[in-house]
Amino acid sequence: MKWWWVLGFYLGMQPALHAMDEATFDAFKQQGLDQLVLRFSDIAPLLHQHQQNPLFEFTELGHSVLGTPIYQIKLGRGDTRVLAWTQMHGDEPTATAAIFDLLKFIADDAQGMWRESWMEHLTLYIIPMVNPDGAEIYSRVNAQGIDINRDALALQSPEGRILMDAAKRIEPHYAFNLHDQNRFLAAGNSGNPATISLLAPAFNEARDINDSRRRAMQLIAYVRPMIEQEIPGHLGRYDDTFSVRSFGDTFSSFGISTVLVEAGGHRNDDHRQVARRLNFLMYLKWLNAIASGSYRQADLAEHDAIPFNQRSMKDVLIENVRLTLNEQPALLDLAFDLNWEVSRSARIDDIGDLSVFGAYHRFDAAGLDFQPGRAYRVTEPLELTLPHYLDLLRGGYTHFVGDKELLRNRTALPVLLNPGRQLPTEALRRHQSPTFLLRNDDAVQYAVINGQVIELVQGRVLYRYGS
Ligand SMILES: [Zn+2]
Question: Domain for residue 467, yes or no?
Answer without folding.
Answer: no
